[in-house]
Amino acid sequence: MLSRFIYNLFIVCYKLAIYLATPFNEKARRFIVGRRNTFQYLEETLQSNNKPLAWFHCASLGEFEQGKPVMKAFKKTFSHYQLLITFFSPSGYEIRKDDPLADYTCYLPLDSAKNARNFLCL
C-alpha cells in the first residue's frame, strides 16, 4: 500500500517537473503537448476500427527499432490485425509517428489508474 502511494506521488511530481520544464526544454514541451489529445485521437480513430487490435508499446526510438522485426512478423502472421504503437519518448514518437508499419500511433499517457482504465477501455 505504501509503495503504491510512493509510486503515485512520484508520478505526480514527475508530471509537475515536466510542466515546469516546458518553457525551457523542447522535449518536455513535446512530451506534454503530444499527450493532450491522446484519448480524443484514440476515440475518434478506433471507433471505426472493426478489426482486432494488437498493441505494441515502445518506450523509445531504440525500443521501436529493436521491436520492429517482431511487429513485422506479427503483422505478416496475423494480417487481419491492426497495430497500435505507443511511445513514451517524444523523440521516438516524432521520428516514427508516420511509420507505415503502424495503423495507429500515439503517446502512452502518464501512468495513473484513471489513465490506464481510460486507455484500456477504448
List how many beta strands DSSP finds. 3
Put simply, the count of helices is: 6
Q: Which outline best applies?
A: globular
Question: Roughly what percent helix?
Answer: 55-70%
Q: In which order are the strands of the major sheet placed?
A: 1-2-3
> Poorly predicted ranges (pLDDT <50, ≥5 residues)?
none
H and E order: HHHEHEHEH
Percentage of residues in DSSP E strands: 5-15%
Average pLDDT score: 94
Protein traits:
3 strands, 122 residues, three-stranded parallel sheet, alpha/beta
Provide a short characterization of the protein structure.
It contains 6 helices and 3 strands.
Give a description of the structure.
- By secondary structure, the chain is of the alpha/beta class.
- About 60% of the residues lie in helices and about 15% in strands.
- The chain contains 6 helices and 3 strands, in the order αααβαβαβα.
- A 3-stranded parallel β-sheet has the order 1-2-3, sandwiched between helices.
- Helix 5 links the parallel strand 2 and strand 3.
What topology emerges from the helices and strands here?
Layout (H helix, E strand, L loop, with lengths): L1 H20 L4 H10 L2 H9 L6 E6 L2 H17 L4 E6 L2 H7 L7 E4 L5 H8 L2
Parallel strand pairs: 1-2, 2-3
